[in-house]
Every structure is written in C-alpha cells, then in structure tokens.
Write a structure and sequence with these properties.
Structural class: alpha/beta
Number of strands: 9
Strand content: 25-35%
C-alpha cells in the first residue's frame, strides 16, 4: 500500500480532490473542524487500513452499513476496527430483528456512498434522516479516530469530540451507544 502524507494538502490546494471528498472537507471546514489527512491506495477493508493507522497516528473506525431483515430500518455502526462484529449482540441491544449488511443501492440512496467508502462522514448526505447512528462504547475512549472522507483513497484524523459535538449536531444525528463484546 502506498501512503502519501505530504500530497494530501497539496491535492486540496490544487483542487484535485474527488468531488465526494471535496464536499466532505468543505463541510468540515464550515464547522470549524480541523483534520489531518493521508492519500493512499484504495482501502476498503480494515486490514488494508492498518498501515494507514500507523502513519496517521489514529485508530481507523470500522463503519458498517446495516439494515433489518425487512429493509425498513437502516443503521450505521461505528466501532473499533479490531473488534469482530456479531449481529446478535447488536440486534438485542437496539431491539431490532436480526441485522445484515445493507445493499449498495440503499447505501448510495441514503449516504451517497459506494461500498468500501462507508464512513460516519456520509451522514451529511442523509437528507431524509433514515440512517440511525450506532457507536460502540469502546470507540468513545479514543481521542482521535480515522474516517474516510466519503472516498476510500484518503483518510482523515479527526478529534472524536469534534465529531460528537460539532459534526453530529450539524447533521442532526443523535447516536445510540452500545456495548459490543470483544474477543
């Protein structure tokens, strides 16, 4: 995996960021949220993000777009990347029928994202407010967290308090906190 730390700011200055990323960075700037970022090869799995975490100096959150079996309720689960997701523990805590991964069509419809690029930052695209945010309590202990800016060829290091206290209120999203077991 190629990581380019210095090129990120240069890409922004030259206007060479992709549109979803540009929109995301602009939104964060409007909210007064500072960030550091890296550009890199496509990173669509948490395993591919391990080297990025090291360079960025922040744990990258695992972001899972889920739905109930009827496909009437949609959820974005944010959890530590090293935790294994087991649907039965989450379903019970949020009083939902068994959850599964939502399809690419609904991901595009509600978050404006494609598979592999899912991120909490996509909530800015959920104009209908159909996606409920779920945060695993273990993530809340981190000072900084890494998220893709709506595209999986770059990653931002954000202060978690900025995400919780500035970003989420701006997108009118109130998270549900859950305790998912570790291994």
């Amino acid at each position: 995996m190629t990581i380019n730390e210095n090129k990120f700011t240069d890409l922004q200055e030259r206007g060479l960021c992709f549109e979803p990323e540009k929109s995301c960075l602009s939104f964060l700037s409007q909210l007064g949220i500072s960030y550091e970022g890296l550009t890199h090869d496509e990173a669509d799995t948490i395993e591919k993000c391990e080297k990025i975490e090291e360079s960025l100096g922040a744990k990258i959150a695992k972001n899972l777009f889920l739905c109930n079996s009827q496909k009437t309720s949609f959820y974005l689960l944010i959890m530590p990347g090293d935790k294994i997701f087991k649907t039965k523990y989450l379903s019970k805590q949020i009083n939902s029928s068994r959850l599964s991964f939502a399809d690419a069509e609904n991901m595009k419809k509600y978050l404006g994202l494609r598979p592999g690029s899912v991120s909490i930052l996509g909530l800015k695209n959920d104009m209908e407010k159909k996606v409920k945010l779920i945060i695993d309590r273990d993530l809340l202990s981190l000072e900084y967290v890494g998220f893709h800016p709506c595209i999986n060829t770059s990653t931002l290091k954000l202060r978690l308090t900025d995400v919780l206290n500035k970003f989420l209120p701006a997108v009118n999203s109130e998270p549900i906190t859950v305790d998912l077991p570790g291994e």
